[in-house]
Design goal:
alpha+beta; YaeB-like fold; 5-stranded mixed β-sheet; 5 strands
Length: 97
């Protein structure tokens, strides 16, 4: 089961809002595509690469467009930690653990 953390949900809303300033259609498409990409983790939780900044086998990422979908593999499923723009520096405090 894929579970979205509250901070990750807030990231997704923020992404939508920023893109919506230019195009509500594209904002909806990007956020739907991000959610759809994360749904694949139900079947393939190790699909993403290990996040290099954290070097923890359980914390991985998928890339889509200009975004990194950060997630953690746990006993009871996959937990989406954050969705950040690729150009942002990842700091450990940016993800909920």
């Amino acid at each position: 089961m894929v579970i979205w953390s509250d901070p990750a949900k807030a990231d997704l809303r923020s992404i939508h809002d920023v893109i919506a300033h230019d195009s509500t259609h594209y904002a909806k498409k990007v956020t739907q595509d991000i959610v759809a990409k994360s749904d694949v983790l139900n079947e393939l939780p190790r699909m993403g690469r290990v996040v290099p900044e954290l070097d923890n086998e359980a914390i991985r990422e998928l890339s889509l467009y200009s975004y990194r979908i950060l997630y953690e593999i746990r006993d009871h499923g996959v937990f989406i930690l954050a969705v950040i723009h690729r150009r942002r520096e990842l700091r450990p405090e940016m993800i909920e653990r």
